[in-house]
Amino acid sequence: MSSSFEAELILSRPYLTRKQISRAQKNTISDLRTYSQKKLLIIKYLSDMCVQLKLPRKTLETAIYYYERYHLFNAFETELIHLLATSCLVLSCKQTETLKKINEICQVSYKVRKISKVNQDMMETFKKRICQTELRILESCSFDYRVNNFLHIDEYIIKIGKSLQLESKVCHLAWLIAYDVLKSDVLLIIPQHSIAIAILKISVELFNLKNDNNGNEENSSKWSNVDYSYFETNENSVNEAYFEISNFYINTFDICDLQGNIPHDYPHIGIESFIELKQTAGSQTGLDELPNDDIDRDPFLCNSRNSSVRERRHVLSSRLVIEEYNSINNIQHK
Amino acid sequence: MSESNYTKEKKVGEGTYAVVYLGKQLSSGDSIAVKEIKTSEFKDGLDMSAIREVKYLQELNHPNVINLIDIFMAYDNLNLVLEFLPTDLEVVIKDKNILFTPADIKSWMLMTLRGVYHVHRNFILHRDLKPNNLLISPDGLIKVADFGLARAVPGPREMLTSNVVTRWYRAPELLFGAKHYTYAVDVWSIGVIFAELMLRIPYLPGQDDMNQMEVTFRALGTPTDKQWPEVSSFPGYNKLQIYPSPSRDELRKRFIAATESALTLMENMLMMNPQTRWNTIQCLESEYFKELPAPSDPADINIFSQKV
């Protein structure tokens, strides 16, 4: 017993399907409604923080990914959400190289939450707990820094929009939509560049709707020629994001920020526009889901994380897992 | 569930944010190094260097870049498992018992440039190249290590800190405090390392930041607007003493054993203007690597003291 102890080998899976997410959340979230309500509150809180701290969209986006990801493997506790969200932002600042002192972040956090009587002790405790949470957040991402590293939705809207030679109005609308998209779970499902393409597609189509399909023919014909593989993605991923986003607007249009932010000279966009998009798009397609039985057998999603396991290894490549499996088997055979 | 895979046998070093142990990977029997990240009692939580190290090493996989084998959590501490590398170029340069030849230097330069080319190809700036961070594997391969200061190439409007790279290896644009700079800062560092390999003493050893400018420009000439447009608009430029650039003859005297193409490579890596400084591809394609002597086979280079 002395020199050997239990170890766990976990393969990083930075993106999950909708069903897989639901399965993981079963263990951690008892009341999804409350979770969703609080998430909106937290996104507002994080957005306010980012505005105050002059942080770019990518820092906000990464913080939200961390917040959502944390709740796949750690229990959702209402009273801790602000602490957790602040910790996510601290970490996200480091990840996206938009560094801020933890002190400054804490001060702004109190300011944004309108907590005025803050003494030194409160501040120190807050800071300490933020630091304690950091590693747990990273562990829920399997320390997989490949995510949220080079790819961010807003940056790719600009880059891909430019390379497709879309009008700046279309890209601006896409950029507005991209903010609302952060409120959905799509960050957990699809990599950001595919999300950016789906948003641009939606934006192009929204403009076309209002032009009775002839004013913006240039844009729509451009879209039919888009080669997704050129952007390192594929039709299924883009469609998955496309339907996630249109469904998100159809279900929650009233809580979205799009309506209040569309410039005056843009066509009117309402919930009916998204319903129309969906009708035109035909039957919903996207990524393949596994059968429920398989999902229920997946220990990655079903077992709650055991922090008492002394050595919890996180690896990025399945090759490593296979090699290790083979080497253990070989040893046993011998 | 399986048995623990890593042992920590001997503590070999301690830095500001990590303790390094030597150990074994039990599944393979290989020697490895474990970097245990200190996570408690930090002012700003998890150290930025630790984050950068993991972030960039996960992206990179190349024979001349240190390999991050694994990451694990144990006793609530984060541990990075890295390949075991017994020595580094600084140790080798300083050890007067080790003799090395121009072909050995060529081999090290080639491996360093290949590693850094790979780093740059992945849109990453290393920002701390120095002999101490060029580790050497048991079979003689150079491995670019320590990504604690690395960062992704910034977007056009992002500001960078010029307070990077160990002083002696700092490019002139950094000495001037530039907020925007490129891969060229890494090439400069390799150029200084190249000179140090030939001289076996540090080439531009400034005592402090001001003195570093003095030392650099005295050795290589103060840049002018003609060589480097608008260099004079950097704050502090006017206070500089103007030195002439060294002539080829002067360089030949400084580096007696160097061939003409070795000097050409070095001159172009130590170009004042970062825009005209060679990039890693130009360096790798230079005449120096094509002419004789051919670079030594890494496995044949003596990297440990040969006590006679």
TrEMBL record, chain A:
GO-annotated molecular function: cyclin-dependent protein serine/threonine kinase regulator activity; kinase activity
Entry coiled-coil feature ranges: none
Biological processes, Gene Ontology terms: regulation of transcription by RNA polymerase II
Cross-referenced Pfam families: Cyclin_N
Record-linked PANTHER family: CYCLIN (PTHR10026)
The protein's name: Similar to Saccharomyces cerevisiae YJL006C CTK2 Beta subunit of C-terminal domain kinase I (CTDK-I)
Residue intervals of the Cyclin-like domain: 44-139
UniProt keyword list: Cyclin, Kinase, Transferase
Membership in a protein family: Belongs to the cyclin family.
SMART domains referenced in this protein's UniProt entry, alphabetically: CYCLIN
UniProtKB/TrEMBL annotation, chain B:
GO cellular component term, pick one: cytoplasm
Annotated ranges, domain Protein kinase: 6-289
Signal peptide stretch: none
Pfam families: Pkinase
Gene3D superfamilies: Phosphorylase Kinase, domain 1, Transferase(Phosphotransferase) domain 1
Residues annotated as binding ATP: V12, G13, E14, G15, T16, Y17, A18, V19, V20, K35
Transmembrane segments: none
Keyword terms of this UniProt record: ATP-binding, Kinase, Nucleotide-binding, Phosphoprotein, Serine/threonine-protein kinase, Transferase
Positions of the catalytic residues: D128 (proton acceptor)
InterPro entries (alphabetical): CDK (IPR050108), CDK7 (IPR037770), Kinase-like_dom_sf (IPR011009), Prot_kinase_dom (IPR000719), Protein_kinase_ATP_BS (IPR017441), Ser/Thr_kinase_AS (IPR008271)
MF GO annotations: ATP binding; cyclin-dependent protein serine/threonine kinase activity; RNA polymerase II CTD heptapeptide repeat kinase activity
Family, similarity comment: Belongs to the protein kinase superfamily. CMGC Ser/Thr protein kinase family. CDC2/CDKX subfamily.
Protein name, as recorded: [RNA-polymerase]-subunit kinase
Protein's organism: Maudiozyma saulgeensis
